[in-house]
Amino acid sequence: MTPTFLSAVVDALLPGDRGASPLPTGTAAGVATKLEHLVAGRDRALRDVVLQAIASGAGGEEAFLQADAAGRPAFVRRVEVEMPGAFRALVALVLQDYYEAEIVLLAMGWRAEPPQPEGHVLPPFDEALLGPVRRRGRMWR
Amino acid sequence: MARVDPVDVVVVGAGLGGSAFCARLSERAPHLRIVCLERGDWVDRSAMPAYRRDWQRAALGAWATSPNARLSADSTSPSADYAIDDSASPIRPLLWNGVGGSTINWAAHVPRLHPSDFRTRTLDGVADDWPFSYFDLEPYYDLNDTAMGIAGLAGDPAYPPKRSPRLPPLPIGRMGETAARGFNALGWHWWPADAAINTVDRDGRRACNNGGPCLMGCPIGAKASADIVYWPVALKNGVTLRTRCVAQQVIVQGGRAIGVAYRDRSGATHEQPAAFTVVACNGIGTARLLLASNVGRGADGALGRHLMFHPIAYARGMFDEELDGPRGPVGTCIYSHEFYEHRPGRPFTRGLQLQVTRENALLQQAARLEPAWGGAAHGLLREEFRHSLPVMVVAEDLPEARNRVALSEAVAADGLPDVRVEYTLSENSRRILDFGLDRGEEMLREAGAHRVARVPLAPLTGWHLLGTARMGSDPATSVTDGRGRCHAVANLLVADGSLFPTAGAVNPGATIAALALKIADDLAREVVG
User: Fold this and answer.
1) Contact at CB, B174 and A16, closer than 8 angstroms
2) pLDDT in tens, B337-394
3) Contact criterion met (CB < 8 Å) for A15 and B172
4) Which chain B residues in 134-163 lie under 8 Å from chain A, judged by CB atoms?
5) Is B221 near chain A, with CB under 8 Å?
6) Do the Cβ atoms of B341 and A139 come within 8 Å?
7) How many domains does the structure of chain B reveal?
8) What is the pLDDT of residue A39?
9) What CATH number did the domain enclosing B52 receive?
10) Distance between CA atoms of B473 and A68, rounded to whole angstroms?
11) What is the pLDDT of residues A128-137, one digit of tens each?
């Protein structure tokens, strides 16, 4: 299984988007490199089952690489239907790495730092909003 | 089996019920020797995920809310879990096994039941009344409020006036304000949540800094949990807490409990003799231990039956303007009890709570999208992240004997029989959820949502495990009396959510704590006079 093929699968799953603050592709976010390590190690089953199925469905890794931007997701979708559980496990793996990447968090308008110790700032509660409710009578029985 | 020194009271489970019970009983009857056996251990706050860059994935692994998910994750969780066969339930049980129990990963939303919840048979002709009233339990709600410190606001017309003082309410943020405008436009009730979360420094615990992921533990201690609220009191009063000790059996001889057999961290088994045995292992663990101890009255007995969750559905509104996303305590924002009380003419019995929460982390939001990959997933996440407002429809589940906790023949790794949950969503609960989804969408549209997505029944919401050792006066249909005493074994008590005869439609934490405090007082009165 070549790094180029893995990268192409990752980018079919995580194509990124365009705009003022574009989401990078999965490969650009470093997900393909991590997936390469994972499928060589503890998650060999993903390589042997899901990734092989994607390659086979396309007629081989090279054929998958030759497919255009619309063709690659079609091969992936076919495997999603054939083996939803294993496919979902692969997607869960790549999502974890992708949405932890600083470049992705920033593109989504979030921050790279974890919730603590900084926390977040929220505006104080404006009790005036409760006026109509306070004017109601007893509701409880 | 080695026999250890006898004590007056042995408590099984150091979660909310067990810890509140131990703290209160040791205050009221300081001469008693009390031992608590806990299958898990203390949680190390410095190791909680919210300080780490990979914190988001912890919610899908070691800090998942589901014990089954934690067990199957390729990681070691600090929770000492046992598998629960939930294949016969559309709702997955969620809990934490360790000192503090499920308050370690609770949202700390602590509403009280309504007075009417204690009188459903009398008022509405369904289910059963509790053996006591809201006003009998009220002093214990107040005690728990004082122990935990409750952020909130007095004056909610949905409740009788609450006597215990409140800390300033949590900020409701843009999400809360948006929802509040929607509720106001419809003339519906809403109120800021009662939260067991510090909004000012208190009792050596810091004020909340709105970090967000409370369900992965609160590393700064702003969120109250039983390990940091009740256990310091209990330990100071001389209660002995033995962690990583798994109770195997309540030993009953001649109709009386004589103690508990347990396995310690080394695997050695012991017998802890005691004059009173108290079980507080939540609605699944308590039934599991008592059934394994053959305390139930046969296959037709109430033990393990009448399991109630709070079935939950979501209406999630998408807004053009930017909202808070995962800022602020995730489960505590505002709620509406407009449809809480039973009203004839509605297509269901009893009622519901509409609870506006904050959002989950980016990864969790991405992981539950459908589709979860490809350009369409990116598009959905762009529309949703920091622009969505979830309304949780919390239904009152009525007790039904067919919904139960049962044992399997096989023995689990912890030495107890494997446990399974058999649960079917009732037609009444379904109708409540559908009605609530309609109302939730109505509010969201009124508040300006351009799209509303619905989750008709959320599977990973089985936080509230109630009713499996229910209180009542009839031994044929209940397990304990109003003091938590088992009908079949008078010196065997239960002190957790298993006791609830009915569930109401609010989070049960405050009521579990209040019940445990009351049961401790009842026992103290008996032994002290």
Assistant:
1) no
2) 999 999 999 999 999 999 999 999 999 999 999 999 999 999 999 999 999 999 999 9
3) no
4) 153, 155, 157-160
5) no
6) yes
7) 1
8) 72
9) 3.50.50.60
10) 72
11) 999 999 999 9
Q: Which residue, among B183, B373, B378, would best test binding to A if mutated, counting the most A CBs under 10 Å from its CB?
A: B373
Q: What percent of chain B has pLDDT over 90?
A: 95
Domain boundaries, chain A: 3-113
Q: Which residues of B touch A92 (CB under 8 A)?
A: 60, 367
- Report the distance separating Cα B491 and Cα B255, nearest Å: 9
Residues ≥6 apart with Cβ < 8 Å to B213: A115, B49, B50, B55, B59, B326, B330, B361
Nearest CA in chain A to B53: A114
Per CB-CB distance under 8 Å, the chain B contacts of A23 are 378
Identify the domain containing residue B72 by its residue range: 2-528
| Helical packing angle, B134-148 and B16-28, nearest 10° | 90
CA-nearest of A72, A86, A58 to A27 is A72
**Torsion, Cα of A34, A38, A40, A45 (10° steps):** -140
Backbone dihedral angles phi then psi of residue A84, each to the nearest 5 degrees: -60, -40
Q: How many CB pairs below 8 Å do chains A and B form together? A: 152
Structural contact between residues B512 and B520, judged by C-beta atoms closer than 8 angstroms? no
- Nearest by Cα to B285 from B413, B511, B97: B97
Chain A residues within an 8 Å CB radius of B74? 42
Q: What is the pTM of this model?
A: 0.96
ipTM: 0.94
Answer yes or no: are the C-beta atoms of B334 and B356 closer than 8 Å: yes
How far is the CA of B389 from the CAs of A28, A121, B460, in angstroms?
A: 31, 18, 19
Are residues A115 and B362, on separate chains, in Cβ contact within 8 Å? no
Q: How far does A40 lie from chain B, in Å, by closest CA?
A: 16
Chain A residues whose beta carbon lies within 8 Å of the beta carbon of residue B174: 123
pLDDT, one tens digit for every residue, chain B (529 residues): 888 999 999 999 999 999 999 999 999 999 999 999 999 999 999 999 999 999 999 998 899 999 999 998 866 899 999 999 999 999 999 999 999 999 999 999 999 999 999 999 999 999 999 999 999 999 999 999 999 999 999 999 999 999 988 999 999 999 999 999 999 999 999 999 999 999 999 999 999 999 989 999 999 999 999 999 999 999 999 999 999 999 999 999 999 999 999 999 999 999 999 999 999 999 999 999 999 999 865 656 899 999 999 999 999 999 999 999 999 999 999 999 999 999 999 999 999 999 999 999 999 999 999 999 999 999 999 999 999 999 999 999 999 999 999 999 999 999 999 999 999 999 999 999 999 999 999 999 999 999 999 999 999 999 999 999 999 999 999 999 999 999 999 999 999 999 999 999 999 999 999 999 999 999 999 998 7
Chain A 13-52, CB below 8 Å of chain B: which residues? 13-17, 23, 42
Chain A, residues 78-137, CB within 8 A of chain B, namely 88, 91-92, 94-96, 98-100, 105, 108-110, 112-127, 129-130, 132-134, 136-137
